[in-house]
Amino acid sequence: MNIHTLDKVFALLLFLLGIYITTTSVEYGYMQGTTPGPGFFPFWVGLLIAGLSLVNVVRSIARRETLDNEIDVPGVIKSVIISLLLLAFVMFSEEIGMLLGCFILVLLIAWVIQPRWSRTFTLKIVATAVLFPLLAYLVFGVYLNVPVPLGTWFS
User: Fold this and answer.
1) 71 DSSP 8-state letter
2) What pLDDT digit, counting tens, does each position of 74-109 carry?
3) Ranges for the DUF1468 domain (predicted)?
4) Within this chain, do residues 49 and 2 fall inside the same structural domain, yes or no?
5) Is residue 67 helix, strand or coil?
């Protein structure tokens, strides 16, 4: 299987996943009174995944992307490590909380992608690691009034 076929298959699978997430999220309830329900965020994330995957399929069919015909081993290893970090985040976020978990996740993913950090890169990553959880808390915890798990350490 060449890289172009793999790209099309993966984009199609992501499209189907996005449709599944969107249709399943409706069962959880889109709104609860005047506040977003548990299905609100998954609904929009599913639509976003499906839409962007559809764009990727069209671009791949039209050959608008230039892809190398090889998948290098370091790239695969980085992908596996990042997937394991995301799995660990999901498994431990209830214990350590979403805010601290997001902070740690951003730093670790940045380290996997680029192990040697310049001063500028370090400042950008630390700012992202601090601002992303803070912004997520303000949007979901404060503005939308959705409970954000703070973990057993901070409860």
Assistant:
1) -
2) 888 998 999 999 999 988 888 898 899 999 999 999
3) 9-149
4) yes
5) coil
126 and 64 in a common domain:
no
Q: Which residue has the tokens 């039209």?
A: 62
Confirm if 43 and 26 have CB atoms less than 8 A apart: yes
Give dist(CA 106, CA 122) in Å, integer: 12
Boundary-marking domain end, from 20, 44, 70: 70
Contacts of 103 (CB under 8 A, 6+ apart): 129, 130, 132, 133
Instruction: Determine the pLDDT at residue 57.
Output: 87
Q: Residue 123 and residue 91: Cα distance in Å, rounded?
A: 28
For residue 73, give the amino acid letter: V
CA 109, 115, 116 angle in degrees (round to 5)? 135
- Phi and psi at residue 32, to the nearest 5°: -125, 95
Overall domain count for the chain: 2
Domain that holds residue 14: 1-70
Query: What's the CA gap between 73 and 81, in Å, rounded?
Result: 12
Asked if 107 and 129 touch (Cβ cutoff 8 Å), the reply is yes
